User: Fold this.
Amino acid sequence: MHYLHDIDPVAIHLGPLAIHWYGLTYLVAFALAYWLGTRRLRAGRLPVSEQAFSDLMFYGMIGVVAGGRIGYMLFYGYAKLIADPLSFFRVWEGGMSFHGGLIGVMLATLWWSRKHRLQVFDTLDFVAPLIPTGLLSVRLGNFVGGELWGRISDVPWAMIFPNALPHNYSIDVLREMQASGALDGLARHPTQLYEAALEGVVMFLLLWWFSRRPRPRYAVSGMFALLYGIFRFAVEFLREPDAHIGFIAFDWLTMGMLLSAPLILVGMGLLLLSHRSPTLPLATPAGSTS
Assistant:
């Protein structure tokens, strides 16, 4: 008998206002990134003050949210955006794109780096190991919300996601159907957990280990792009394509694959470029430099 996903996606009810776990995962993501970034900063991994780093985190937060929303509407909801431009602002209906958020972070980092007269890839190399814990948090939020599920499977750990069922049954009815085995043929891969494990835990451990000592410029950013591209591309084979998009080509190529494949190429290119780039010495622990 497969597990029935019946987790309440709402963390707190405040009258008509509902605060979802998914939204809270973004707060957790930024808190973890700030904590880890402060540790790297104090170890001399970037020659700026903690106040300047706080500014970077603020701009990065704006980049994630704005870029994630813009990216989603352009990559996944373009037809809806054209038909109803105001849908862009209805964020409570869902819709964030990692690839759009990544572009937003890169633009924010570029602006901040120019302001502080730093080479942008020195900043990106500093930031890259901070991102996986955020991915872990947000992917767990996807799981709690019962969204972005995988394809139908009979593996022992497959799960039944009510939002993926063809009919809208009450949770009590679903429990009865689960107990009778009527839903077994509708169980799916919990790809949110696969992504949390790969993009979050595994990628964090590898990047944190890889960046434990100074590396040539571009190396850490390249490793991040390569790992994320490979992990996301692989999980897409088990993840259910977006219903309104489906497969883009060959009955297996998804939008997630199409957006992730360039990251694999960029990652390999940056790692090659790093072999001809300088390894920057540790900076004086931040405190006075701005």
